[in-house]
Every structure is written in structure tokens, then in C-alpha cells.
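Model it.
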Amino acid sequence: MKRLYYMFVALIVMLPSMVVGKVPQLVEDQRGQLEQDRRYTMYGVMFYNLENLFDTINNNGQNDYDFTPQGAYQWDGVKYWQKQHNMAYAISQMEVKGSPAEGPVIIGVGEVENLSVLQDLVKQPELKGRRYQIIHHDSPDPRGIDVALLYNPRFFKVLNVTTQSIKKYLDEPVETRDQLTVTGMLAGEKVSIMVNHWPSRRRGTEASNYLREAAGRMARATMDSLLLDDPNQGIIFMGDLNDDPQNRSCSEALGAKKDIKDCTEPGSCFNPWWNILNKGIGTLGYKGNWNLFDQIIFTNYFLKNYESKDKPTLTFSRAEVLNRKFLRGNEGDRQGYPLRTFSGGVFLNGYSDHFPTMIYLVKEIK
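Modeled.
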């Protein structure tokens, strides 16, 4: 008995060192394998079209009367704050396993009316503790909708902010969303984030293709300019492109590649969503037809160590359409599709007509 007692005491003494010693973090790599002898940190980079995150005030000169108490949607304070709660809850549920942060460290957003609605969003109880900071730019869009960037300042340090207009790439005046470009430091590495919301298909897909192709040329020119200034940086391009990966705006004007093996030239871009859409997975759709407009595309900076077990720099791990069950409709012809805020003018108390998307970047802890 005495011998068993001393063995038990020895085990108790050893336990703390066993707990605080090297505990391998099991993080999925790009092939779905687990590296048990290495430790990694994962960073989530997300894009979300928030579907008309408008306040209740009619701003003169902007076509937002529908989103007022007297407008078509009878957009009052009750609906506004319910929308804010829903969007904050949705973002809060996007977990990033293996991350030092709660949720994504960077979130690009589209269809926001102004800075004020974003300030209300990040103060919601579901997000307040993350202390997301906001970079917003007022665009000349006639409806008054803009793009913006939310970021966790513990992990992303802003160095520079610029905006780009599509106007110089067209022969006609077009009022649409500007591109927002934010350069900063993520995990000790220089990374530029480009947030976009390209012109819609309202005129018809073919009739409006030239607008999105011009936006693609603008984005590619911005990338080239950034790389000319500093070739040793990674670039992440994201947004609601109103086009799919195989469309000319993405595949030719922007030059985003379908396969990693084709991303060999300096500054070339990989589009992981091409193959995801080919599997029938999209971010918005109707009656069996899916589109994947909400894309996150990035330069081959993030592919340098993709095939290696060593991840000394930020490395692409995987991409995901965040089509969580609570974001999906479960009735009628919208079953399985994004549960939106309104349908046919009826308030559904949903989230957005787009699913969010996320890429995961992994880096080894030394």
C-alpha cells in the first residue's frame, strides 16, 4: 500500500509539467491532414455582404427612402436594431479554430450605408468584446452603399489607407462603389487588403459585363502598383463581385487562376472559389442555380509554403462558404438559400441574401 501511495504522489507532482509542456495544436492543413508535432496559429479573413445595412434616416441626395419609417420597407428602429443584432450574431458565430482571436481578424463588408451603422454593429453585445476597428469610405454610389473593413487591432496594424475609382477605366461616367485598399501588418507580415463591390447585373449580365471587367482591370492595376512599391507583401482581394470566378472580369481582367499550379508568375492570383462553385456550392442562388459572387482572391505570396509541412510565413490553408444552418431559409422556394432580411417586401427578420466567405491562413509558431 505504501508503495502505491508514493507512486500516486509522484504522478500528482508530474501532472503540472505534463500539462504546461509542449501540447501539440492539431490544425488541419490544406490536405485535411493533422500535424501533431507542430504548433500553428490560424487567422481567419472574411467577407460578408450585409444586405442593405441602412439607418432609418433619409439622407438628401441618396436613394434610400425605402429604408425609412415612411418608405416601402417601413424601416423603423425596431427593424433596424433587429437587423443589427442578427448581423452581429452571424459574425460572432464564425469560429476560427486554432486562432488566438475570437473569430476572424479581418472582415470586409459590403452594402453598408455609412460609418454610423458600422459603429452600431461593432458595439452589439455579440461583438463588443472583440473591439473591432472600422475603416470606411463614402462612395459615390447613388443608393449610398459603401464597402468597409473591420479589423481586430490586436492582430492587424494599419499602415496606409487608399481608395480607387473605376472612372478612369471607363469612357463614360459611372457612379458606383469605390475600391478600399488597406495595408497593414498581420502576424508580422505586410499584407494589403482590397475590398470591393463591383457594379451589379441590373442592366442584364451581358449588357453590364464591361463595367465589371473595368473593375477587374482597376483591381489588377492596384495590385501591380502595390507590388511595385513593395514586392515582398501579400495581397488579399475580396468583395461582392456580381460575377462568378469563371467570368471574364475575374478570370481575364483580374487574372485570377483556377489552379494553384498556374500561379507561378510573381504577383499572380489564386481563386479558390472556382472549384468550390463547380461542386455546386455558392453564396447566393435561386431555384437550383447557385452563384458565388462573394470571393476572396489572393496573390501567390500565400502559396509559397502551401505544399510544405513548414509554414514559416502566412500560408493559405483552405476556403469556405459559411453557409451555416441558421443562415439558411427553410420554407418554400427559398429553402436552403440565404435567409434574407426582406422577400417580396415582407420582413423576414433574416440575415443577408448572401452567405459570408472566409479563407484561413496558417503560420507555424516557433
